[in-house]
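TICKET #2291
ISSUE: user wants both folds in one file
ATTACHMENT 1:
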Amino acid sequence: MKLSFSAEDEQFRTEVADWLAANLTGEFAKLRFRGGPGDEHSFPEERKRWEQKLAEGGWTCVGWPKEHGGRGCSIEQQVIFFEEYARAGAPGRVGHIGEGLAGPTLIAFGTPEQQAKYLPGILAGTELWCQGYSEPGAGSDLANVKTKARFDAERNKWIINGQKVWTSLAHESDYCFVIARTDPDSVAHKGLGFFLVKMDQPGVDVRPIEQITGTSEFNEVFFDDAECDPGDIVGEPGDGWKVAMGLLGFERGVSTLGQQMQFQNELDEVIRVARENGKYRDPAIRQRIAQAHAELKIMRYNSLRMLSGQSGSDGSLQGEALIYKLFWSTWHRSLGELAIDVCGQQGQLLEAAPYELTRLQSLFLFVRSDTIYGGSNQIQRNIIAERGLEMPREPKWT
C-alpha cells in the first residue's frame, strides 16, 4: 500500500471535503462529532435522514462495485473518503452494518435475487441492518451458538428460535443477519446457517440493555418462531460458518480507517481540554498524549499494510488483520483513561440529574467494553497464537 496519493486521488479528496462542508449544515449541523462510541443514541432520526442525504449525493457504499450500485472506488479513494468524513466531524453512521458488512457479504456470497432484494435499500440509506452473532453463551466463541433454524415445509418458511445479545442498534434496524444452527445434532462450526431476518414481525422481541453510560444502543433480541423466507438463507444450510467468517473479513476492512479517524477526533478533543484546563503542562500527561498519537499512527500504517494484502472479494485478509482488534481496543481503552485523567477531578463529577455525560466522560465509560465485545482480548490472543503463529491449540477442558 503506497502512502501517497495521485493527483486524481487528491481531486477526489477535494470533492469529498467540499460536499461534506456544503451539506453538514442546517438540520445536520448539530450532528457534527455526534453518534460515535457511547453516543450512538444521539439524534437517531436526524442521522437516518443523513444516511439518505449521503445516498442522494452518491456517498453511500463508495467501495461497492459499480455493477451493484457503488462508486467502485479504489482502496486509496476509500481511505480518503473515510478520512475526510471523520475530519469534517460527520456523524456516526447508522447504516454502517448494512453498508460495511451485510452488503459486501451479499455481493460475495448472495444470490442475484438476494442482491436485488436487499442491496438497493442499503444504497438508498432507507433500510438499516444489525448483526445477530453473539449469544449469552456464545460471545467470543461464535461456534457455540444455540439459536436454531428449522425449515417448515408446510409453511414454506425457516422458523428461527433463540436469543442474541449485544446487538447494536437492533431497535432502529429493519433487518438482522442471524447465525443459527440448521442441524440440531451439529456441534462447533458445523451445521450453521446464515439468515436474513426481517425485524418488524411477530416473534422478534427487542429489549434494550442499559449500560453504565445510561444509554441503550445495545440490545437483546429474542426470536420466538420468527419466520424467514426460503430464499433468505445465504449459501446452503451448513455454509453459515464460511459466510460468517467472510463477513468478519469485511469488518476488518477499509472501514477501519474511518474508525481511526473517529479516534483522531477523540484524541483531538482530549488535547483541546488539556490545553484549556492546563493539564498539558503535566509532563506525564504530555507523554501519554504523545504515546497515544504515535500508536494511532502505527495503527493506521498497519491497517494500510493489512488492506494492501486483501486477497479477494470474499473479505479474506492476510495475517496482519489478526492483530487489529487487540491493538485498537487496548489503545482505545487507554485513551478513555487518559481522557478522564485530563479532565481531572471535575471529570468525575456531574452537576445534577439527569446527569448528562460530557463527551469525554462517555468515552471513558464506554471504552471499558472495547476489550470484550467483538472478541475479547483473551480470545484475540488465542487467534493470533493459533492462526497467525501456528502455535499448538489451547486445550479444550471438559
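ATTACHMENT 2:
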Amino acid sequence: MSNLHLKSVEELAPLLESKQLSPVELTKEILEFAHQSQEAINSYIDFYDDEAIKAAEKAEAEIANGDYKGMYHGIPLALKDNLYFKDKVTTMASKIHKDFTSDADATVVEKLREAGVIFTGKLSMHEYAWGITNNNPHYGPVRNPWDTTKMPGGSSGGSGAAVAAGASVASLGTDTAGSIRIPSSACGIVGLKPTHGRVSKFGCFPLAWTLDHIGPMTKTVKDAAAMLEIISGFDHRDPTCVDRPIDQYVNYLTGDVKDLVIGVNEDYFFKQVDHDVENAVRKAIDLLVSQGAKVEVVKIPSLQYAEWAELVTSLSEASAIHHSNLKTRPEDFGNDIRLLFELGELPSAVDYLQAQQVRRQLKAEFAEAFKKVDVLIAPTLPVVANDIGDDTVDLNGEKVDLINNIIRFTGPSNLTGLPALTVPCGFKGKLPIGLQIIGPAFKEGKVLNVGYAVEQCNLMEGKKPEILLANR
C-alpha cells in the first residue's frame, strides 16, 4: 500500500483533477485499508466494494473527459448508518431496523452523489444515535484509532474513527447533543455542526426533531468547508430547512484573525475542565491573540439551565419517536438506550415547555453576546476519551459520570441551533484534545476561518493515530 489513506481531500483533489491519481486506484486503497483496519477499530457496518469500484470507474471517465465536478469528485468515503441510501439497508446500528431499506436517498447522499463522491459503505454508530460511547450491543464497540482501548466518542463514532484512521477520506455525522463534535474531538479530527436548517435532514432517521443536525467530519478545515458547500441548501422535504443562499465557505479560509474578538465564558465553558484540556485550549487562544485577535469575557447566565433543557427536550422527543417499539418490543433495544427511552416517558408537558422557554432565553443571550464578540471559543469536551465500557471518566483525579460531563459543552449549540466547529488543538498523553468555536447563526464561514487559523498553528505536530503507525 502507498499512503493515500493518510491524505486529506484537499491533498487528494489536485492529484485527481490533474489525472496524476486515478479514482479507481484511490478507492481500492481506501477499501483495502478499511478492511484491513476493521478488526482493530470496527468502524464499518457494511462495505460497498463492488458499487464503489464501479462509481470510481465512472468518476475516472468523467474526469478524463474534462467533466471535473469539484473537490470531492472521485473521493471515496463512507457515511453514518442513519443516512438513507436508496434500496440499501440502513440499520441505525439497531436490531429493530437491521433489515430496513429506504426507497430514496437522503438529501445529503443525493448531493454528494451529484458532486462525484464514491461511497465505500456505511459506518457504525451508537444505537439510534442515542449515546456518546459507540459501545454497541448489536455490532460491537468502535475503537479509537489513537488508542484502541479507548472509546471513539459518539454517536458518530464510526465516522470519527474511520476518518482518523484513514478508512474513509471524510464522512458525515449527525449531532443532537454533540454527536459530530464529541467523536471528532476524541478522534483528533475536524467536525462541524452547521446552523440548524442549513443542511437538510430529509432521509436521516431522527433522534430528536428540533435538535438534530447533519454535518462534515473531516481531516482538515478546508475539507469540511468544501463538504458544507455541497450539502447545504434549502429542501422542501425537510420542514426545518431554511431558505438561505449557500456561501462559498472555502473562500473564507484566509487564516487572518487580526481584530477578531474572541468571547470566553469562564462561568460555564471553563468550569470543571481537565487541566491538560484547559491548558491546550488556552494556549490556542493565546496563539490567536499573538496574531492580532482580542479576548473578551462574556456572561451567558442561562447556560446554568442548558443541561436540564437539553436533556428534557432530547429525552421527550426521542421517546416519542420510539414509543411504539418501546411498548411492544423493549427487549430489542440495547440496555443503555432502553433506559433512556423509558426515562423520556417521564417529563411532563410542563417540563417540556419550560425547557423551550430556557431555550428561547439562551438564544437571546447568545445573540446579545455576539453583538460584542465574533465567536466563542471553549473546550469541545471537558475530558479526553475514556476506556471502552467504563461509564465514568477521570476529571482531575476524580471519577465522574461520563455522559453528564461529556455533553456539557456541546449541548448548548444544539439548543440554540448555532454553528459549532471542533478542531484538534493538542494532546493529553497520546489522546487528542478538541477546541470548539461557536458562531452566530449562518456564519459558518467565520467559524471555519477561526478553525483554519488554529489548524495553521500545527498544534498536532503531524502526529498520527496508533492504528496508522501500526499499519505502515
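RESOLUTION: both attachments delivered.
EXTRA DETAIL ON ATTACHMENT 2: Residues 81 and 110 are 15 Å apart (CA to CA).
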